[in-house]
Amino acid sequence: MELKLDIADTLIPSINCTKPLLIAGPCAVETEQQVMDVAIRLAHIGIKVFRAGIWKPRTRPNAFEGVGSEGLEWLRRVKKEIGMKIAIEVANSKHVDEALKNEIDILWIGARTTANPFAVQELADSLKGVDVTVLVKNPVNPEIELWIGALERFNATGIKKLGAIHRGFSSYGKSPYRNDPHWQIPIELRRRIPELPIINDPSHICGKRELIMELCQTAIDLDFDGLMLEAHCDPNNALSDASQQITPEELEYIINNIVLRKQYIENEDAEILEELRLYIDKLDEDVIQLIEQRMNIVEKIYLAIHEESIKRQKTVMN
Ligand code: PEP
Ligand code: MN
Q: DSSP states of 263-302 as a string?
């Protein structure tokens, strides 16, 4: 069933850039100097929207939980002095109040928050009558209804500049990704709400910078509307998500090397076919990964059953 949300066709035009929309910035605001340095370098490579976490939802306590409200002043400087639009994560109504007071342009809802309908409803209520852009990350668990439910809650309280961010899904066990992409879920979201812009967040999907380029290309091939990437001037010493952040210059390299769809797709039929082929490739990758997980379990069972005889063989050979 296709779902109808009331979405203004203004997300990308209002940011005054062409598709794909690029959003970049550090995982977290750390110091005024760090924010200004990375923002200047990102603006220099043409990034118009600056992302940064003020309050960080950490899995374990005692990790860096963000600088808090103080950092909003520094983001105001980025907006006023460099002219970038600013995006931050909000998780409760206090965050919303502070963000609006500081003229933040885009609010994003983190994956842990989207998974909680109470929190989402509180946020939606606190945004009633406010004309701001809201981007909803997918919930941590692979459940499309929860993602759509959150989008509906914001839309119902009047948010029309709405978009989704695909950041992958938690899973148990070994995987090359920090959060498995399950591409079929954002593709299904596009089928259900065709007018909704969907942005890909390769940084949180891969968890390590080596895979970012490849994920960006897949997202562009699958016709995502934009990319949100974590960038830092000194990624290895970042206070959060160090292994997935890249420098502005590495980001520039990626942007310059992504092949845009219109460069190789001649017409609409070819475009649909190409998308379906890619979708099959992604499903194949999921199947291969599942078979690998199955093999690992079979191997564990074999080792458990034959542990004794393997030990005996080893002693005889020694
Ligand atoms: C982030 O964007 O820095 C973040 C915490 O993301 P997520 O909610 O996707 O984990
Ligand atoms: Mn992060």
A: HH--SHHHHHHHHHHHHHHHHHHHHHHHHHHHHHHHHHHH
Task: Select from 83, 80, 79, 66 the least CA-distant residue to 29.
Answer: 66
pLDDT of 2 above 60: no
Ligand 1: distance of its center to the CA of 303 in Å? 39
Structural tokens at position 164? 């989704």
Residue of the CA atom closest to atom 1 of ligand 1: 27
Q: Tokens for 162? A: 């709405």
| One CATH from 3.40.630.30, 3.20.20.70, 3.40.50.720, 2.40.50.140 for 11-261 | 3.20.20.70
CA distances to 56, 58, 123, 125 from 110, rounded to whole Å, are 10, 11, 12, 17
Identify the band that residue 275 occupies on the pLDDT scale cut at 50, 70 and 90.
confident
Distance CA 146, CA 139 (A): 7
| Phi, psi for residue 134 in degrees, rounded to 5 | -125, 125
Convert the pLDDT of each residue in 24-60 to its tens digit: 999 999 999 999 999 999 999 999 999 999 999 888 8
Residue 180 identity: D
Cα(249) to ligand 1 centroid in Å equals 22
Ligand 1, atom 2, residue with closest C-alpha: 27
CA distance linking residue 317 with residue 53, whole number of Å:
58
